[in-house]
Amino acid sequence: MSLVEDLLIILTDYSAGYKLMRSKLAGYENLHFNRKINYQEIKEQVLRTTLSRLKKQELVDNKNGIWRITKKGRIRLINRKLRKPHFKNPNNKNKKKRDLIIIFDIPEKIRIQRDWLRSELIALGFIPLQKSVWLGPSPLPQEFIEYLNTINLLKYIKFFKVSEEKIVG
Q1: Domains of the chain, residue spans
Q2: What confidence tens digit (pLDDT) does each residue in 37-51 have?
Q3: Residue 143 neighbours by CB under 8 Å, 6+ apart
Q4: Fold of domain 3-81
C-alpha cells in the first residue's frame, strides 16, 4: 500500500485541516488492511507534495483548509482494492467453449473501471478480440452482473450470445 492509498483511506472517514490531519496520522492504525502505518517518519514536505498531487489529480480537494476525498478518489480506492481478479466463473469447466461476446464503450473519465473490467474478463476466461470486444464462456456469474450494475458500468456494456457455424462450404 502506498502513501497515496493510505491517505485516501484516511480521508474516507476523516476530514480536517492539514495540521490536525498530520497529528491524527501519527500512530494511525489502518485496521482495514491490518497493519500499522508509521506516519511520524514521513517528512512534512513529502506529505504536502503528495496532497498537492492528489488535488491536481482531483482525488482530493481542499476547501477552506479542510481536506476531503472526492468521488473520483473513492472510485480509485475501490478499484485499488479490486486489483486482483474478483470474480471467478465456477460454471466454466471448459474455457475453450466460448459463446459470449461482450462489447463495451466505457468513457475515458472512468478509465480505471474500464481497466478493472478487462482484468475481470481475463479472470473469467475471456480473450480480447479488440480492446473493447471480448469473447468468452457463458453464463457469467450473477454476482458479477449485479456488481457491474452497482458500479454503474452495466449501461456501457452489451452482451451477445454466439455460435460457431460453418458459413463457407
Answers
A1: 3-81, 100-161
A2: 566 667 778 888 888
A3: 87
A4: Arc Repressor Mutant, subunit A (1.10.10)
